[in-house]
Amino acid sequence: MKSIIPAMREATKLTLARDLVGATRILQQALNGSAPTEPAPAASASPPHLLEGAAPAARPKESADPARGARARKPLGEALDLLRTFKPPRVDLGGLPLARHPQPPVPNGAAYLTRSFSCAAGSRDYKLYAPSSLRENSPLVVMLHGCTQNADDFAVGTRMNQLAEEAGFIVLYPEQSRSANSSTCWNWFHRAHQSRGVGEPGIIASLTQSVVEEFGADPNRVFVAGLSAGGAMAVVLGETYPELYAAVGVHSGLAFGVAADVVSAFAAMRGPVNLTPNAASKTRAGATSAVRAIIFHGAEDTKVHPSNGGMIFSDARSGLAGRTQLIEEDAEQGGRKFRRTVMVDAKGHACVEHWEIEGLGHAWSGGDPKGSYADRHGPDASREMLRFFLKPTETACRARAST
Question: Against a cut of 0.85, is the pTM above it?
Fold first, then answer.
């Protein structure tokens, strides 16, 4: 193993510089006993992160063959496992985007499936949790991870599978591909992914419909939630597919149409958003959410300014039909104070909730810290979202039923 150490050192340098392709090549050549046939490309400076990381504006064409991506990832994962066994002094690989993620537990009788999906809009891998008590017409909750996360990590941090086991609903975890975004961010900030029937909204919506049909889920109880970039994409789905998703859960996300490129995305994340005439504001002009929404945001969030939660709340309010009443309460839960603002209709149904949590940064409130971007303190965002989703309500909250 002595001869492989220099290769591991070089691969570590490339990994820290986010040149994962070069690092993998070095390791594979060392394991095969061959010398490099060409020098590893110099690591280029990574662009600043968008919601913990973002891809450049140019994106590769979506692959029509989801199995191709699965084959490409295996050697990369093995190479990174080797990297993790080599621990040079003062080097921590734990924070890298491809760090090992925890595996969610699967109780007897339940299933946690790994699959791929392809449609006209593109393809993605996904995980699906089917509880042991699965029945016909079960609710379906679609969970969209944040940047640098994957389905397993997000499932652990949110504990959504445990809640699914308790309440008997299906959980769908679409996974962003690294070919679409190097930091696995959903591309909420590109106009190509802000419309119905195309891009990532088209893929996720088609996947959702496929799961509803396959598992006999209740089409009237389909919900979507997400964290950070995933929360922003959940907002996009609520805006573009209001007939498919009955409610949206947004944690530390951004409003629809506040960005159309990398520059405007940074501006939105810094907040408050200045809606000067540009591509982003033109997209945003029609932003009036037609679905019920529950919004969480930490008051100490330094990655996505808390004003973004307020903007999502404002959009959701503007989409309400009929007479509504505003209810505010200040309370404490899980060791953290929060303000909850609720818009209810004339019959007392909660149409929109906005939770502003003191002391919380960019993390899922009341989550499991075994997962990334999860804080054990504060209100249990997962349980509160589920309560909001599953509480019987009428369609009076909606301003429109479809686009």
Answer: no
